[in-house]
């Protein structure tokens, strides 16, 4: 199984670029993040190359994150801003060699008809799919639970799948975030199997708390091999709020990478042995 470290949540104690070698030392073979739009993207690429990691996924710019926005793609009055964000995502996807870009739908504000929001979202996703296709990018939609993000336009993966049916673009797919799915409904394997053909990326965290796998109620020892058996061979994104539990959970599913001959073993690597 292949795992990517979500650098927007893991290794927060480190400056952004230093999170990349830290992820490699812990045994991740890829990284993902909300976006690196405040970074020099060439420096991000250089850090990935130096660490031998792949850029697996990032998001189209998602509005005022600190102010509570979780995407702007469903907002009719923000279409121009969304389209500008797609242009930036295209540049980053090309530079980083990244083939998956996630579009966060956003919250439906009071007073906006749900169907108007969903139609705006569909048009924006169609625009993004068309714009990013020449770079070989697939545009993903993710369901986000409405306990953590009240009003999110796509609360369940069934809602996200229905939206993709409106979009009707070939280079689109679903991101299955196990944590959000567990909060909204559970029945994780059946849900995965139901939408398997459209799922192109998986993210994990435990519940409650959104912490490391193994800290809560989700049986990842059962679920991850089952996803594999159901034909999922893509990356699994570690998108959780770290505790002191560390990344030891990874050893159950992915072997510890041997450092290249002559390379200095990092303390994280030593600790993982
Ligand atoms: O699940 C999440 O929170 C993320 O995958 C994301 O993109 C932002 O909400
Ligand atoms: Mg997620």
What does this protein structure show overall?
GO terms for molecular function: hydroxypyruvate isomerase activity. Keywords: Isomerase. This is Hydroxypyruvate isomerase. Its EC number is 5.3.1.22. Belongs to the hyi family. The protein is α/β, with parallel strands linked by helices. The protein has one domain: Divalent-metal-dependent TIM barrel enzymes (TIM Barrel, Alpha-Beta Barrel). It contains 9 helices and 8 strands. The protein has an 8-stranded parallel beta barrel with strand order 1-2-3-4-5-6-7-8, surrounded by 5 helices. Helix 1 runs parallel beside helix 2, helix 3 packs parallel to helix 4 and helix 4 crosses helix 5. The longest helix is centred in the middle third of the chain and has 19 residues. It is globular, with a radius of gyration of 18 Å. The two termini are 18 Å apart. Bound molecules: ligand LCNOYBR7 and magnesium ion.
Which descriptors would you attach to this protein?
273 residues, alpha/beta, TIM Barrel, disordered C terminus, binds magnesium ion
Summarize, please.
Helices cover 36% and strands 15% of the residues.
Which ions, cofactors or small ligands are bound in this entry? the ligand O=C(O)[C@@H](O)C(=O)CO, magnesium ion
End-to-end C-alpha gap: 18 Å
Mean pLDDT comes to 94
Strand percent estimate: 5-15%
What is the radius of gyration? 18 Å
By CATH reckoning, the class would read Alpha Beta
Helical residue percent band: 25-40%
CATH superfamily grouping: Divalent-metal-dependent TIM barrel enzymes
Shape: globular
Biggest pleated-sheet summary: 8 strands, parallel, barrel
Please report the number of helical segments. Answer: 9
Q: Please provide the ordered H/E string of secondary-structure elements.
A: EHEHEHEHEHEHHEHEH
* Number of separate structural domains: 1
What order do the strands of the largest sheet run in, or round the barrel if closed? 1-2-3-4-5-6-7-8
Derived structural class = alpha/beta
Q: What is the strand tally?
A: 8
């Amino acid at each position: 199984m292949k795992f990517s470290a979500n650098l927007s949540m893991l290794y927060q104690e480190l400056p952004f670029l230093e999170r990349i070698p830290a992820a490699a030392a812990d045994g991740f073979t890829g990284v993902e993040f909300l976006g690196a739009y405040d970074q020099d993207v060439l420096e991000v690429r250089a850090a990935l190359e130096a660490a031998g990691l792949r850029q697996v996924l990032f998001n189209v710019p998602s509005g005022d994150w600190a102010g509570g926005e979780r995407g702007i793609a469903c907002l009719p009055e923000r279409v121009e801003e969304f389209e500008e964000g797609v242009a930036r995502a295209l540049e980053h996807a090309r530079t980083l060699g990244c083939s998956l870009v996630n579009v966060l739908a956003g919250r439906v504000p009071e007073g906006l008809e749900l169907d108007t929001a969903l139609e705006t979202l569909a048009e924006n996703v169609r625009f993004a799919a068309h714009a990013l296709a020449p770079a070989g990018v697939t545009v993903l939609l993710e369901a986000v639970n409405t306990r953590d993000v009240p009003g999110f336009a796509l609360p369940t993966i069934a809602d996200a799948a229905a939206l993709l049916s409106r979009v009707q673009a070939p280079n689109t797919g679903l991101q299955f975030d196990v944590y959000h799915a567990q909060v909204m409904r559970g029945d994780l394997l059946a849900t995965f199997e139901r939408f398997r053909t459209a799922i192109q990326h998986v993210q994990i965290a435990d519940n409650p708390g959104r912490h490391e796998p193994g800290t809560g109620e989700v049986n990842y020892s059962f679920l991850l091999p089952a996803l594999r058996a159901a034909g999922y061979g893509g990356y699994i994104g570690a998108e959780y709020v770290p505790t002191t539990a560390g990344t030891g959970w990874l050893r159950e599913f992915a072997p510890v990478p041997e450092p290249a001959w002559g390379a200095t073993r990092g303390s994280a690597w030593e600790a993982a042995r």
